[in-house]
Amino acid sequence: MTGLRWGILATGGIAGAFASDLRTAGLDLVAVGSRSQESADAFAARFDIPRAHSSYEDLVADPDVDIIYVSTPHPMHHENARLALEHGKHVLAEKAFTLNRAEAEDLQALAAERGLLVMEAMWTRYLPHMVRIRELIADGALGEIRAVSADHTQLLPSDPAHRLNALELGGGALLDLGIYPISFIWDILGAPTSIRAVGRLIETGADSEVATVMTHDGGAVSTSLSSSRAAGPNVASIIGTAARIDIDTVWYSPTTFRLVLPDGTVQESYTSEVEGRGMQFQALAAERLVSEGTLAGDILPIAESVAIMGTLDEIRAQIGVRYPREEV
């Protein structure tokens, strides 16, 4: 490992979960930045962080920080990640990676120009149960994969002024929740060859439900569902000619799965044993990539994150969601 020194940009709930998991993994968390000194100080005290900065600019200028975890809402990811890259810091940015593909391409180009890692914090990809699932697929345990399905549904605040519902703040179920099943489908089947999407919009113009049907190379099909107004089972399945994998709720967090033969025989049962929430695995991967000099990424290459943003752009176009700043 490189022993990277981590700084956390912003102090919301996801930042707290990440900080806790960094501590669990014994990684070097040295600084936090917020828009107020009070917030930064409170966060630093909570997680025993040596330095608390009252601005994002001061955080990224800190010479004792090597890598920045961007934990702001996704409409701010491009601006915040770009700021960090411009100051010579590696970046792990929360998902959805950006607001759209154009912003993602800009970060990809800047990171390549500066010789830095920029990586989407799609933590699910790095969880032990997903590592085992990819091993089973690579070993041919499922035969030919014919179909993949996944959902991410939650009962979230319905207040039109809430960030999740405000179009000007990138609100909507797709980028907050749908990114999980879409990225999962990409992980298993690769890029879609066709996309069909339907959605339901709320009074603000943001999406509350989105369903997709996609086709992939070789003819495989996938389905996904996201909703911010109702809570479903949050399960996923990968169906092959030789076996299927059923991933239990909540499939995108540390969980259990079964490898099931066509006659119903359970050939393998897997239970995740993870300390904390499991966000440390993506941080460990980032440190490994920097150590190896594999700055384009491997489990989730930056080129794939960019392409996934393109898939989300197309889904939004089909359901009629466009963010105000995209009108410029």
From TrEMBL:
<dbReference type="Pfam" id="PF01408">
    <property type="entry name" value="GFO_IDH_MocA"/>
</dbReference>
<protein>
    <submittedName>
        <fullName>1,5-anhydro-D-fructose reductase</fullName>
        <ecNumber>1.1.1.292</ecNumber>
    </submittedName>
</protein>
<dbReference type="GO" id="GO:0033712">
    <property type="term" value="F:1,5-anhydro-D-fructose reductase (1,5-anhydro-D-mannitol-forming) activity"/>
</dbReference>
<feature type="domain" description="Gfo/Idh/MocA-like oxidoreductase N-terminal">
    <location>
        <begin position="5"/>
        <end position="120"/>
    </location>
</feature>
<dbReference type="GO" id="GO:0000166">
    <property type="term" value="F:nucleotide binding"/>
</dbReference>
<dbReference type="InterPro" id="IPR000683">
    <property type="entry name" value="Gfo/Idh/MocA-like_OxRdtase_N"/>
</dbReference>
<feature type="domain" description="GFO/IDH/MocA-like oxidoreductase">
    <location>
        <begin position="131"/>
        <end position="245"/>
    </location>
</feature>
<keyword id="KW-0560">Oxidoreductase</keyword>
<keyword id="KW-0520">NAD</keyword>
<dbReference type="InterPro" id="IPR050984">
    <property type="entry name" value="Gfo/Idh/MocA_domain"/>
</dbReference>
<dbReference type="InterPro" id="IPR036291">
    <property type="entry name" value="NAD(P)-bd_dom_sf"/>
</dbReference>
<comment type="similarity">
    <text>Belongs to the Gfo/Idh/MocA family.</text>
</comment>
<dbReference type="InterPro" id="IPR055170">
    <property type="entry name" value="GFO_IDH_MocA-like_dom"/>
</dbReference>
<dbReference type="Pfam" id="PF22725">
    <property type="entry name" value="GFO_IDH_MocA_C3"/>
</dbReference>
